[in-house]
Write a structure and sequence with these properties.
This protein is α+β, with helices and mostly antiparallel strands. It has a single domain (about 10-140), classed as Four Helix Bundle (Hemerythrin (Met), subunit A), CATH 1.20.120.420. The protein has 7 helices and 3 strands; from the N terminus they run H-E-E-E-H-H-H-H-H-H. The protein has a 3-stranded antiparallel beta sheet with strand order 1-2-3. A hairpin with a 2-residue loop joins strand 1 (about 15-20) and strand 2. The longest helix is centred in the middle third of the chain and has 18 residues, at about 55-75.
Length: about 140
């Protein structure tokens, strides 16, 4: 009789967007539950490149939320808002270009569909949050 290790197939990391920050819960190498509250895209990018996030699916989710955080952090009145957001998004993508490029495209498309010049950058952030949540929910389908 063969047995399978179910825990190896299931991700031990959980993402939750709450009050303008991302909460990541995971089990560390010592088997301890850890929680990180992240409100900065650079901090999340460091976590994406660390060993905390090990699966490609979890990297996609973290990448999506990193772009949301970047969109929130930028000055909404900066005339270079969109070019700065694009540059940050491409920098996030460089951690794993082939897997994350579709995620970056989806997030930037969500922001573009929000029509920021007309509706404002808050609408861009809200649209990106919805798209990041969709990407996160795809993990469970």
């Amino acid at each position: 009789m063969t047995t399978t290790n179910v825990s190896a197939k299931l991700s031990a990391i959980k993402f939750r967007w709450s009050n303008n920050e991302l909460i990541i819960s995971y089990i560390d190498n010592n088997g301890l539950n850890k929680t990180i509250n992240i409100a900065d895209h650079l901090e999340l990018t460091d976590i994406i490149n660390s060993t905390v996030i090990s699966t490609m699916e979890d990297m996609r989710i973290a990448c999506a939320y990193a772009i949301v955080l970047a969109a929130k952090e930028l000055n909404p009145f900066d005339e270079k808002y969109y070019s700065k957001l694009l540059k940050i998004s491409l920098n996030i993508k460089t951690s794993n270009k082939h897997i994350l490029s579709s995620t970056v495209r989806r997030m930037l498309s969500a922001g573009d569909d929000a029509n920021g010049p007309v509706n404002g950058t808050n609408r861009i952030v809200q649209s990106m949050i919805l798209e990041a949540n969709r990407i996160h929910n795809e993990k469970f389908i």
